[in-house]
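Propose amino acids for all 135 sites.
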């Protein structure tokens, strides 16, 4: 498992955003997956100058999101730190759409090869990584 730093995560996000070109121009809200996705989501929301809200999935797979009225009819960018299986990102994406988001695009600085079925719309394939916030 490769350890990455805050700086490496920020650079990975910046590189991904640069590669998106105008594809994210219509994004109106960034939703960060708590807890690991908050740092990359903050980097994204700052770069795109868009508001950031938080979604949380607990150990029983219940999703908590208390700002549904903010995202209704909006184009949302869902951000997590890594997609290992795709379960978390897919579950939250489904909820956001159910709550009325016009569209949900996904971004994770890292995703594992085994997550190909649920790979984020934007990200880079990597080996499993350990983040500073996991320590």
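Proposal:
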């Amino acid at each position: 498992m490769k350890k990455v730093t805050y700086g490496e995560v920020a650079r990975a996000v910046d590189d991904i955003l640069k590669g998106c070109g105008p594809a994210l121009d219509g994004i109106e809200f960034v939703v960060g997956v708590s807890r690991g996705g908050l740092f990359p989501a903050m980097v994204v929301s700052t770069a795109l100058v868009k508001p950031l809200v938080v979604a949380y999935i607990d150990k029983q797979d219940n999703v908590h999101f208390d700002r549904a009225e903010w995202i209704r009819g909006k184009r949302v960018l869902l951000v997590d730190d890594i997609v290992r299986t795709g379960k978390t990102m897919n579950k939250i994406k489904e909820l956001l759409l159910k709550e009325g988001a016009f569209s949900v695009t996904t971004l994770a600085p890292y995703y594992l090869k085994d997550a190909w079925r649920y790979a984020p719309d934007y990200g880079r394939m990597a080996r499993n990584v350990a983040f500073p916030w996991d320590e």
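The chain has a mean pLDDT of 93. Strands lie at 2-3, 29-34, 52-57, 63-64, 75-79, 82-83, 103-111, 122-125, 129-130.
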